[in-house]
Amino acid sequence: MRKGIVLGSVALSVLAAAGCGGKTKPAAQHPSASAKPHAAPALTEAQARTIFTNYERVNNEANAKVSDALLRENETGPMLEVDLVGNKRIRAKQEKKIKAFYYQSPQFFIPRDVSPAWFAVFAQVRGSKDKEFLVMVDTGGGKYKAAAGSWLAKGQKLPSIARGADGSATAVTTGPALDVGTRLSTYLTYTAARQKSPEKFASGPLTSTLGRNWAKSVLQINSGNRWQGRTEWKARPQPVYALKTTDGGALVLSAVVQGLRYTATKPDVWYKPSDDFLGLGPKRYYNRFTGEWLWTYGTYVPSTGLPSVVTSGAHAISATGS
């Protein structure tokens, strides 16, 4: 797990340029970790704590050794994807090795009757104010791996998660809350294009502020009339993990890709991408550039009112062009 948190600003060279954001087509509904009649029995908190402690140990060993093999042993899904890319950047000397870090005061949310079995953890990093919300999923035979994680944004708080009489959490496996990643993608794409979005979200650092920041970057780069392109977000067709909140809403963890696609419109210009992409491709692009960030959002969807994004993690995953 990488601790870095990206809020979407881009590093621009004097002659760099992004482009206008375009409209996105609605994405398909994304799968959830669904309930099934023969789902495995829920873990006890003691069992979940043992799994999480082992994850922490292997995570620090993997980071110390920059080991892809240990990452694959410990992670899956979006988390594994971004961490393998991070190791590539470390080997290219574009990212520093991650120092060991340890969690304190973890809270466990263990839903029953889900398949594959999974549970969520919300924990603070010892010696800092950083707090992570992550999901551990059974990948077969009781082998749990970290599938997705995101970090609590400044000024935000985790909604209250509903618990049953036995302390278990309730997984949300159906309903419109599961498609919040698609709606958020539409919202951010329209906002970055300086257009009115058909979707609405509560204002905050990961919604209105993020969209406006990208709109400024897009406008700045387009004003040079040297490049043309766009930035847009699209929800990933990967499992969505959601927990019921005490107000009857849901906290939804989902993966979204932000794509950057730029093409030069004049000769003798070049584009320098954000430092996040260095080590994944050239340091400069002269004809075209395509880059992607993988975001993991924790979105609170209340029973009434506007959704708000409370946690996030973002890492560059690809850079191509010429």
TrEMBL record:
InterPro entries in the record: DUF8094
Residue ranges of domain DUF8094 in the record: 39-313
KW Signal (keyword) present: yes
PROSITE patterns referenced in this protein's UniProt entry, alphabetically: PROKAR_LIPOPROTEIN
Swiss-Prot/TrEMBL keywords: Signal
Signal sequence range: 1-18
Record keyword Signal present: yes
Protein name: DUF8094 domain-containing protein
Lineage: Bacteria, Bacillati, Actinomycetota, Actinomycetes, Streptosporangiales
